[in-house]
Amino acid sequence: MPAEITIRPRADYSDDQWAASGRLNSAVYSPEDVANWPGRVIEWSRPTWHALLWNADQTEAMANACLQVRAGLLAGEPVTIGGIGGVMTHPQHRHQGHAPAVIKASLDYFHAMGNVDFGLLVCEKSLVALYEHLGWQYWPGRMWVLQRGERVPFTFNMPMIHPLNRVPELAGEIDLCGPPW
Ligand SMILES: CC(C)(COP(=O)(O)OP(=O)(O)OC[C@H]1O[C@@H](n2cnc3c(N)ncnc32)[C@H](O)[C@@H]1OP(=O)(O)O)[C@@H](O)C(=O)NCCC(=O)NCCS
């Protein structure tokens, strides 16, 4: 039986479920990882929904993604972007398709909304091939974000997009009209 995936706002998870999400996060990132992460200086936006993939008795979260929908611009035209961040799988449960399952569920969630044009995530260069394998495409154009109210190019890591309502041309600029995720 496929593992259950829940996608909910933080407020709709119980304290026990949220604690499980915290345990997953701590298993993936040590305090040293967090303290030394170069991205800690970036202003990130808060997700709206948390996707969690559960073990059989629903007590431990094995994989996570964070979701939000953003009104942005593609080549100057308004677009609705499905943002995915915080993709992670518990180190003891990797290579079992959990992250792909959570990402697929997240894309399905956006698709069901009906108005989301494409998915967008950002990742380290070393993960581009993994996301390409999952149907994402590297976005070669410039991407703009807001950082403490200032519009700046995003260069920290690699934007990847996934078609939903539309298949964006890999040209022009994307403006997230807010902090990245
Ligand atoms: C990256 C991460 C989320 C992957 O999670 P996972 O659940 O173990 O993912 P899986 O290995 O089951 O699935 C990844 C898929 O990409 C494939 N893949 C992995 N590396 C690849 C590469 N370099 N090139 C092509 N395909 C690749 C795998 O074969 C697998 O596909 P398959 O199921 O068809 O075989 C996990 O290693 C993790 O949590 N890392 C630390 C946190 C992190 O870096 N998160 C990403 C933030 S963007």
Describe this structure in words.
- With 181 residues, this protein is α+β, with helices and mostly antiparallel strands.
- It has one domain: Gcn5-related N-acetyltransferase (GNAT) (Aminopeptidase).
- The protein contains four helices and ten strands; from the N terminus they run E-H-H-E-E-E-H-E-H-E-E-E-E-E.
- Strands 1, 2, 3, 4, 5, 6, 7, 8, 9 and 10 form a ten-stranded mixed β-sheet that branches.
- The longest helix has 16 residues.
- The radius of gyration is 16 Å and the shape is globular.
- 31% of the residues are buried.
- The model has no long low-confidence stretch (mean pLDDT 97).
- The site of coenzyme A has 17 residues, from strand 4, helix 3 and helix 4.
- Coenzyme A binds next to strand 4, helix 3 and helix 4.
What does the secondary structure layout of this molecule look like, with pairings?
Blueprint (H helix, E strand, L loop, with lengths): L4 E4 L6 H14 L2 H6 L12 E6 L6 E14 L2 E13 L8 H16 L4 E6 L4 H6 L3 E2 L4 E5 L2 E4 L4 E6 L10 E2 L6
Parallel strand pairs: 4-5, 7-10
Antiparallel strand pairs: 1-2, 2-3, 3-4, 3-10, 5-9, 6-9, 7-8
Bound molecules: coenzyme A.
**Unreliable residue runs:** none
Ligands bound to this protein structure = coenzyme A
> What proportion strand?
25-35%
Count all strands and give the number: 10
Question: Which structural class is indicated by helix and strand composition?
Answer: alpha+beta
Oligomer state equals single chain
Helix content: 10-25%
Query: How far apart are the termini?
Result: 32 Å
CATH architecture: 3-Layer(aba) Sandwich
Question: What's the Cα radius of gyration?
Answer: 16 Å
The total number of structural domains is 1
Instruction: Give the overall average pLDDT.
Output: 97
CATH class: Alpha Beta
Give the CA-based shape: globular
**CATH topology-level fold name:** Aminopeptidase
Order of helices and strands: EHHEEEHEHEEEEE
The CATH superfamily is known as Gcn5-related N-acetyltransferase (GNAT)
Given the structure, what is the number of helices?
4
Largest sheet composition: 10 strands, mixed
